[in-house]
Amino acid sequence: MAGKRLSDEFLEQLRANNDIVSVISPYVELRRRGKNLVGLCPFHNEKTPSFTVYPDSQSFYCFGCGAGGEVISFVRRIENLDYYEAVKSLADRSGISMPDDGYDDSLIVKRKRMLEMNKEAAKFFYKTLMSDRGKEALNYYLNRGYTISTIKHFGLGYAPDSWHGLLNHLKSLGYSYEEIYEADLAKKSTKNGKINYYDNFRNRVMVPIINVRGQIIAFGGRVLDDSKPKYVNTSDTLVYKKSLGVFALNFAKNENDGSLLLVEGYMDVIALHQAGFTNAVAALGTAFTPEMAKLLSRYASEILLCFDNDEAGKKATARALETFGSVGIKVKVIRMSGGKDPDEIIKKYGPEKFRSFITGAANDIEYKIIEQRNRFDIDSSDGKLGFLKAVTGILAETDDIIARDVYASKISSELNVNKDTLMLQINSYVRQRRRNDKKSEIRAVPKITAAVGDKVNPQKTKHLKAAKAEEMLISSLMRNPDFWDKLRGEITPDDFVTDFNRRVFVKLSQRLDAGLSTDFGSMADQDFGIEEINSLKAIEMLSDKLRHSVKECRDCIEVIKAEKLKLTQLPVDPSDMSDEEFMRLFKTTKAAERKKHG
Predict the structure, then answer these.
(1) What does R_g of the chain's alpha carbons equal in angstroms?
(2) For residue range 124-181, what is the model confidence (pLDDT) as tens digits?
(3) How far apart are CA 94 and CA 391, in angstroms?
(4) How many helices (H) and strands (E) does the chain have?
(5) From CA 508, how far away is CA 496, in angstroms rounded?
(6) Cα angle vertex 94, ends 91, 95, to 5°?
(7) Count of other CB atoms within 10 angstroms of residue 548
(8) Is a pLDDT exceeding 50 seen at residue 221?
(9) Threshold 0.70, pTM exceeds
């Protein structure tokens, strides 16, 4: 397979079936910024998001470390795979057959056996719960108020206080130690050179995690007392990614009236379902991800957020609101009183009390305004001013101009402030936010090729002027393939000064001659390594600064040829020119060449 080139048709289908946002979202928490999305780069440590995903071109770029590419190169880098392994991974993810009769389906077989093994483990846990060994665990569930019907409905169980209970059971069914370990149903240790396997879940009440297809993909285990760790959950496996997991969606997707109730934990979900709130679900993992938000948006038009009524819950609510904002789904926040979570509210006051909280849920803007109101003493001048500044910032974040107007009217009336003044400040913040977003991208662009190009194109520092002209020409032709009919014959690979840009141009011209696509995804294929694709992405991004004209391309060609000629006449003085210096030299060279040729 490794020696076989993949067709453009297959790669085009692969990319079409693996939207880059959906592929990246499990690894990076993305938020909308204009038409693009941003997040913290997974390839280097940073506190300010510089990792940008471009849905239009199905590509990504980090302005901090220079990592860039398309969906295949992202998977290559994040999973440490070679090109063909990454392609296989994406093909399997999207159900596309590899164009190779000898395609290895061992991964599919392993996943199937893992799902079967999880099912057998769930049966074991349930039978143990209902046996004499499970009396204490069963009482734990009953004391929480769960009925036997609820226990059966969710397939709850008990992992016995044993080091090898589940292990021995699964071994008797023909599963190997390594298979059980890979499903995270067992752990292993090495002592005196010998590997010892033992049960991952011991003396815990067990909750099976079931996907929307009804397959058991993971487990959560809770201690019966207050010992630590309180919860042990399945780690990522071939069939489970916690960043994608949503508990009870298999039930809730068919039991809602267009809304889903998102709470913090699976114990809350179980209590809510028993109380009649069968649209309740919970995120699995440490953070709510955009991929989870997209999954929920397939089954509901509105999300009701109900996280614990503590500081951690408030922070989780703020993060979830930002995440849902990038997806564009309607969100309301339930504010509870009299208990820290839904389970406690229902136990204390009954289902109707919790239902009243749902009725009084605030939308995302209202919730943020209420939170800010609680921070300030609006009866004082300083408090009133601080609150108004916070509110104008909140309203400036939304692109819904009607919502801005409605809430500005409400706040100005409540606080006796001139609405026009309030709107003036809001609109000023909106303009500033947009300017800042644009400036951050513009400031980063001049550094793009310098940030990553030196390793891939070491000749660039010695021949900066030529390299920049080469990159501008390549970028323009990638975006405007129709220019090639007018420029063919005016430039050849031999005219290029730097080797890397020459190699890119050879590939580009071959695709142009063949009438094939020259978009970034098509160019960034198996011919290039990870670092080279970073540089190619940087070149492609120069397109935003170009005028996109045939004349501009010819100006680049003129500079390239002039610089190539200099190599045989004068030594080139290395310099680190700014973009402004380069453009001045660019214009000077053009003028000199035109004068020379009359």
Answers:
(1) 30
(2) 999 999 999 999 999 999 999 999 999 999 999 999 999 999 999 999 999 999 999 9
(3) 44
(4) 26, 17
(5) 13
(6) 75
(7) 12
(8) yes
(9) no
